[in-house]
Amino acid sequence: MASGGQAPTAISQCAPTPSWAQIASKHTSTQDLSPLHNPSVLNKLKETTSDFIKLDADTLSRARLRFQHSLFGKFFGKPPSFEQVKLFLLKKWENFGEFLISDLPNGFLLIRCSSQTAMQHLLSDGPWTINGIILQLSPWKPYFEPSFTKLTTAAIWIQLHNLPIEFWSGDTLETITNHLGRLLKIDELTLSLTRTKYARVCLELDLSKPLCKGFTARDDSHRIFTIVLYERLPTFCYSCGVIGHGSNSCSRSPATGKATVSQPPRPSRGKEVRQEPYPSVAGLDAGPVPPSPVHASYAPVEKFAR
Predict the structure, then answer these.
(1) What mean pLDDT is predicted for residues 119-140?
(2) Residue pLDDT, tens place only, 288-305
(3) Could you give the domains of the chain?
């Protein structure tokens, strides 16, 4: 679908709008936390004690082995109760393997996966949603403190348009996308050159930073501009590239009218897209994130048939 439609309403003198990651970090107020998990209380306690316990490296290494296939999760929004979430996710992920899900302070989840393969499925086959609320997943890391931690990264599938096919090898794609985020997975149809209208990769992106509109790939004699499109994002501003607000409420958006377009659809292609219907548990809806209007001044965006 080519760009068109009504111009968004211009908003003057808008207050600066936070990114999506900043909004998400405010969903759990410190007033809602137990005093034992309130950062301000914990910091005061730290100042009043000088006791230290040192653990040797072997003890720590053994303790961490059980979490080598684990993830941390947190919803960007208010989810249903933990028991509903647990039942729902176990049913939704049952084809990937066995999982153990437990709750942590500050709204975090600990998800222990049965294998590295199962963990990679959860990271790269999302984003996962309940009632339209995105579950952000991040690999387990040592010294994780839920009361002090904010998740700002997400696994997002992106499309690279106008990238020459000689750049579609695994090593080259990893090099090219390194400035966008950490490469998690390459669509098998991209690697095999089975579908070649655009390259498709899954990256771990820092959503606290503006998203990249495109980039120029070059060697000593040629330059090629590549357009970057993002699949199934939450509310996203194509004027400034920040997640958390739309273009019609962006403080950086010019007051002139612009055409609006739609985000690219998630393609139905290969093993990367699950064909089974989304499960439902006690009235929970697991539908995909609906596309939201975006500002045409951010990048030339069209709906491509694959």
Answers:
(1) 83
(2) 333 333 333 333 333 333
(3) 69-139 (3.30.70.330), 153-278+287-295 (no CATH)
**Is residue 204 a contact partner of residue 184, using CB atoms and an 8 Å limit?**
yes
pLDDT band per the 50, 70, 90 thresholds, residue 210: confident
**Mean pLDDT value across residues 104-120:** 91
- pTM > 0.85: yes or no: no
Other CB atoms within 10 A of residue 178 CB: 11
How many angstroms separate the CA atoms of 208 and 22, rounded?
7
